[in-house]
Design brief:
10 strands; about 20% strand; alpha/beta; two-stranded antiparallel sheet; globular
Length: about 280
């Protein structure tokens, strides 16, 4: 197994953050396959791009915002069956630690969302960074029905879809019905990323927040290696800025990063960006 160099402890005891890989794409309908290879691809990209080797020593790079100092991180390896994710995430949450799950297809979020919600005993706000709402209800139990499948665990009126630009008509109907706010990339350009960050903070204030990052929320110019690319997406710096401002509030209880498709990546661009996103998220905690 590939191990994250960022992992600085050999046990889950007394850690702040637990990274879990889920190499599973069994609920994906994407024509572009290979997200099951994503967790280790992200780890390799992190180890290659976020460390320098000099004089026999590994020297980590620093995040743009926040700090990795005094953060205790444990890489729990890969879970081959995503249905076992629920038990592990429940245990991590009950012990006051933050799970960061790397996929794999987006359906793993259903398991993690329900586990976190049950563990803390309340519905969660969700910030869903995705080109697609994943709010299909005519078909369920797959990567396009995550929000439908997680309805009992989410407070939609304190949640947001960000970067959405490839919605099916029924998904927009479902979002409107439950009061789920959608911010598309054109609106981010129009009102500015700083204003969007303020909107996120206002909407989620007082709630425990689950952050889900489907890498296809990014424009394919920044992230070509995803399973369902959609032009017109977020820039990498805008996404990282929004994540930083969201996570630094202290309300975020879990994070996932999904839908990296290594076989369609170009020079590991997307994998390195995914690694950077994860590091910046950890630094913002």
């Amino acid at each position: 197994m590939v191990r994250l160099y960022r992992s600085n402890t050999d046990t889950m005891k007394d850690v702040d953050i637990v990274v879990i890989g889920v190499p599973d794409e069994s609920n994906s309908h994407a024509k572009r396959k290979g997200t099951s290879r994503a967790p280790d691809a992200l780890r390799i990209a992190s180890n290659d791009s976020e460390f320098f080797e000099r004089g026999g020593r590994l020297i980590p790079t620093c995040p743009m915002s926040g700090t990795l100092n005094r953060k205790s991180i444990f890489d729990a390896g890969n879970i081959p069956d995503k249905h076992k994710l629920r038990e592990l995430v429940t245990d991590i949450t009950l012990h006051g630690k933050m799970p960061i799950t790397i996929g794999g297809d987006h359906s793993l979020s259903t398991e993690a969302i329900q586990a976190v919600s049950n563990a803390i005993g309340e519905k969660l706000s969700i910030l869903y960074f995705d080109a697609h709402p994943d709010f299909v209800s005519s078909t369920t139990n797959y990567y396009g029905s995550v929000l439908t499948d997680s309805t009992q665990s989410l407070n939609f009126r304190k949640s947001m879809l960000i970067g959405t630009r490839a919605a099916e008509p029924e998904e927009l109907v479902n979002a409107k019905k439950v009061g789920l706010k959608i911010i598309n990339p054109l609106e981010i350009v129009e009102i500015g990323v700083k204003r969007v960050a303020q909107m996120i903070r206002a909407r989620t204030r007082g709630s425990k927040v689950y952050v889900s990052v489907d890498l296809d929320c990014l424009d394919p110019a920044f992230a070509p290696g995803v399973s369902v690319p959609s032009p017109g997406g977020l820039s990498s710096t805008d996404l990282i800025y929004l994540l930083n401002k969201t996570i630094s509030t202290g309300n975020v209880v879990a994070i996932d990063i999904v839908e990296l498709a290594p076989d369609y990546d170009i020079s590991n661009t997307t994998a390195m960006l995914a690694a950077r996103i994860m590091s910046e998220c950890i630094a913002s905690v």
